[in-house]
Amino acid sequence: MSLERRPLFPVVEPEAVPGRYGCPMLVRTRFSFTPDGPPLMRCSLGWALHDGLEVARCKATDVLTDCWKVHPERTPVVAEAATDTEAERMTVD
Question: What single-letter DSSP state applies at residue 12?
Answer without folding.
Answer: -
